Amino acid sequence: MLPRRFTVSAIDIHIDLTGPDAQNSHSVTFGQDSPGNELQMVFFGAVLHLRGKENVPQPLVDERKDVLCWNGEIFGGIDVKPEENDTQMLMRELEQINEIEDDWSDSQVLDVLQRIEGPYSIVFWQASTARLWFARDCLGRRSLLWHKPTDGDDSFYLSSVSSSPNVTENGNFWEEVPADGVYCLHIDKLAGSSGTNSVSDCISHFRWRHPDDSSDGNNRFLALPFSKVNPDVPETLTIEDIAVPEDFVPSISDEMDQAINGLHSVLGDSVRRRVIDVPSHISTETTKVAILFSGGLDCLCLAALVDSYLPHDQNIDLLNVAFENPRINQNKKTPANYDVPDRKTGRASVEELRNIAPHRTWNFVEINVPYEEAMRCRQQIIDRIVPLDTVMDLSIAMAFWFAARGEGIYKVLVAIMCGMAYIRILNISCTYSGIINHSDGTEVPYHSKARVLLSGLGADEQLGGYSRHREAYRQGGWHKMINELQVDIDRISSRNMGRDDRIISDHGKEVRFPFLSTDVVRWMCATRCDLKMDMRYPRGVGEKLLLRHLCRRLGMHQASRNWKRAIQFGAKTAKMTGETRKEKGQQKLA
To answer: Which residues belong to any copy of the Glutamine amidotransferase type-2 domain (predicted)?
Structure first.
């Protein structure tokens, strides 16, 4: 999507990986931006088919010559039936826009986009008004990059994937499109300027803001679909620490009981919408959904909720990644030890899942990454995280990249029933009840083919899961902690989910975030903070208190005491940079 010229070969390999089911292109010519320079836009789309019965190639072009490139999912706001494709339904909504007045047309486009519940990045060419619309959703859950021309021979680029710095010959070529609103490039204005207007001069920006924010004099804004964090704190609450025994479980008041039911309902509905209509791509497919599974509280609750909505004959892959520590196993005389913290937690948590849902085949996939393999794939991963370039970005991206690839091992289970033992391997499901599962230690290779991955991202930001929330409470009580929560929620859209989208889509898969449904965020923001967390209690009790209660209600008591551990430490990717102990997370990659 650019004026003047475009060579797709720089990034087409990346796009083919992210969208393996269909690729297509479409060109639009529109006047000249300066004498002798024809203005041309080239749209290229690659589709990962995850909605509807039919695979719909992109770009999608309608009778009015409008062009749509859509990288997203519509889970609400626009009616999309299970058998329908959301790209087609979105184009149908956009086709209803009147062509009478430009300003009215703008409002209609904005109205359609702000109604969508779900993650997206979008590029939409509106032929009747000669405007190129582009945006990311208000929480920044999908990738969209741009490059603005730096001279008269340069071009304007929009892309959901990046080319490597070696291809662009400029490490600063790409920038993330901010998820702070909807952008509109006035191609007619650019074409009619005879070269006097830059691309930046021709872009309008319609910002997201909270509905209750005071007006800044600009009536053209988009109302965020959730309010600010509820600031109310009951006057009866104290701030003194509460000492409790090791296995203490806080009592459940009537208000807390209602909150647990409310979270169960809104989070359950978010999970349901993200897993129920994933299409099959091969006739023998038994696993459509996988969970990025550290065994922690967030992903465990998601797994239990997924079990409520998928048919029992569908397996669920639990992707658990661990990295070899090169500092410990330098001499290679002993086998690598992959018993990292997330592996230990994962093994314990999957047993709880098997206890509450013995009808389900839970494929606990142990993804073990040797140091040499991590280093061999390092540059490819660096290329995918562009324009981000810090040690921490690489550390987190490595964990997601290998987890999403899904290549690991599965331990054979011996299922015992009525004194008779039989073997259950991989996707051969047991349909009997009253089963006790034990691993006999035999390992078999396994490659997860599930295209939809669920992540627990967003729970910590909204439920006080970070140590900074507890520190804010220690320094200034409830109100300072609430202010810290608001800061975290405000910056979710800039929390690098675009990076994670590029990393995971590199394997032709898609990550979905049930905790970041705007319906869930709306409910969380409206709920009083003392019902969601209580930092008077110690670690493992007070933070994410509401989710711990839900975890116990779902039948998982041991895991309800798990606490936050960042993925780069839980999976030990923080050891995989190949550098020294002095290397810091915010350092630029060499």
So the answer is: 53-160
Outline where DSSP puts E strands in 78-151: 120-126, 131-136, 145-147
Cis peptide before 59 (omega within 30 of 0): yes
How confident is the model over 477-495, as pLDDT tens digits?
999 999 999 999 999 999 8
Of the candidates 269, 268, 289, 292, the residue with the CA atom closest to the CA atom of residue 280? 289
- 137-152 pLDDT per residue, tens: 999 999 999 999 888 7
- Reference 262, options 547, 552, 489, 542; nearest CA is 547
Cβ atoms of 356 and 554 within 8 Å: the answer is yes
What's the pLDDT at 588?
85
Give the residue from 3, 11, 1, 7 showing the smallest Cα distance to 165: 11
For the ranges 60-69, 326-335, 460-469, 570-579, which has the lowest average pLDDT? 570-579
Tokens of 142: 């999908």
Mean pLDDT of 323-339: 78
Q: Report percent pLDDT > 90 for the chain.
A: 68
- Is residue 447 exposed (0-12), middle (13-18) or buried (19+ Cβ within 10 Å)? exposed
- Helix (H/G/I), strand (E/B), else coil: 270: helix
How far is residue 279's CA from residue 288's CA, in Å, rounded to a whole number?
Answer: 8
Please, are residues 360 and 315 in contact by the beta-carbon 8 Å criterion?
A: yes
Q: How many helices (H) and strands (E) does the chain have?
A: 17, 20
Residue of 261, 257, 356, 266 lying closest to 303 (CA atoms): 356
Q: DSSP state, 194?
A: T
> 3-state DSSP helix/strand/coil percent for the chain, to nearest 5?
35, 20, 45
- Tell me how far the alpha carbon of residue 214 is from its chain's centroid: 31
φ/ψ bin of 434: left (φ > 0), alpha (ψ from -120 to 50), beta (otherwise): left
| Number of other residues whose CB lies within 10 A of the CB of residue 171 | 14
Closest by Cα among 262, 338, 346, 264 to 297:
346
CA distance between the termini of the chain: 32
Q: Copy the structure tokens of residue 35.
A: 């004498």
User: In angstroms, rounded to a whole number, what is the distance separating the alpha carbons of residues 311 and 290?
Assistant: 14
What's the one-letter identity of residue 49?
H
| Tens-digit pLDDT profile for residues 209-230 | 998 776 655 567 899 999 999 9
